[in-house]
């Protein structure tokens, strides 16, 4: 048995050395290209990897309707005919642009570091559609070098291979599959109202229960009411909540934030995080904050709304993305211009009655 284990370790070390050799060769090749405009992508094991679908990065409502009306073959032909026409920005576009701003700052402070954001375009589009996607990415000067085009098959199986930290899609079923695999994921919707966002700081807002935390406390609310919830939270104030589906993404953001803190850049950090929760501060806020502390995680701003609408506060924050598990919070935020992403997780999904959906152009 010990000989088998030794052999396994030997094989693992060999694979690791081969991997390092391949990356060194890739780095040498990329450096020889002499491109100052296109920095080379980081190694996946060092990066915070964001996988975005083509329909979240770009507004492809018209193209989607064409596919549904005309079928795959005509859709591919249509995309080839229009491949020199850039697609319009989609819901995830401002988030991706803000990520690029953070990477630029990180490269200034740490020229040789590979602890950066890395964006992967994850789509079930046919490979022939890739030319239009590439042309659109180049048109907007986006740094996206990794593509996964699966030709109609679900891309979910590739998320772990790409070491994905966050997956954003228009397809709620795929998002649920990703969460079931332990990957942070959320469903995005079309932007209803455009507002001006900060162009030098990535702002990410999170709900608490069933997003950063598990839904255990939310179960108490739904099944036994608020009074039982307040009593439960007081009793278990010093017991950390279990982690929710987005906890690991907050952790990844914190890792990059600490790189700025190490350079005395805390007050000028280009990443800012927010907890925007319906919890009451005095009655149930302590457990949320103590849970984050027990995880060794910081949140820059914590807003306890005691059941008040989140939309008006989010309108002031203007995050590049806001994560929530409740559709009525998503819809309220969207109506005031916030880019919101739904996390389909926990007991709250039994009560969700959201109306948001991708609108298609009206048929003539």
Automatic annotation (TrEMBL):
Region Disordered: start-end pairs: 1-21
InterPro entries for the chain: 5-nucleotidase
GO cellular component: cytosol
Transmembrane segment boundaries: none
GO MF annotations, alphabetized: 5'-nucleotidase activity; magnesium ion binding; nucleotide binding
Record Pfam families: 5-nucleotidase
Any one GO biological process: nucleotide metabolic process
PANTHER family associated with the record: CYTOSOLIC 5'-NUCLEOTIDASE 1 FAMILY MEMBER, CYTOSOLIC 5'-NUCLEOTIDASE 1B
Name of this protein: Cytosolic 5'-nucleotidase 1A-like
Record organism: Acipenser oxyrinchus oxyrinchus
Organism lineage: Eukaryota, Metazoa, Chordata, Craniata, Vertebrata
